[in-house]
Amino acid sequence: MKDKGGKGKGGKSKTEWIEFEGDLAGGQAVERCCPNAGPFPAYTMTLNIGVGCVPAGTYDGYLFINGYGAGRNHAYIVQFWKKDDPKIFIQIIGGDIDYDKWNRVLTVTFENAECVDYCSGITTLVTFKLVSRPY
Question: Fewest beta carbons within 10 Å, which of 36, 60, 82, 124?
Fold first, then answer.
């Protein structure tokens, strides 16, 4: 079998640039991000505000982003966690989705979205923008 060198169908790279701006911040290239069953790439996330019992700060962890729901209920899900620290696991579902098919750029804007800290169960409202594009 021929090695595709990290490329998918049609020779298109599976590397994406994923960037967050706002209450969640970060930006880096990731390989093969986030089909439904993984892989879940390593990602460095900055929380500009505390979320539940997770204080503001920069964390090295793992990222999952994907479409969530269908039809009128179609939203986006963002999860971030640290494998070695179960106290750090956050999830946000919602956002206004805009997908530029021509340039393959996904932009999801979250305004006062509920961010759940799974350690404490506390919900914090967050505002941020997620952009994912080919790298």
Answer: 36
